[in-house]
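Now read these lines:
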Amino acid sequence: MTGATTIVAAMATTAWEAARGGVTELFRRSNEDGSGTIEAQLDGDAALVVRDEDTDGVREDLVRPWARRLAALLREHPEAADELRALVDQVAAELPRTEHNWAQHITAHSGGSAFGAQGPGSSVHVHKAPTAGDGSA
């Protein structure tokens, strides 16, 4: 499943050529007519990712078929497991890093309190508006 997820994640990214070449090489051992069939499948799936507005949805749809293909390959050629692991490591290292920045705004009124935090490394900043006669500045 990790192999399939990594291969599909690489589609339409800068890591695609490495992923495509590595997968083609993996499947050469079980494909008597050369790698043309698997290359056509890879290219067709990558084109779907590029064309569809919902790239995440397309990628989710493509993971299971690629997991099945890879599982079948490994059943037939268990010696390919180390090569697949190496390919996953290589492609994962080449995948673009995504950074998510989140903003959350919480407002409390009439003397109420509100707190919020999101994810690891998040922090909470509490700002209290002074009310008349409480001595806050």
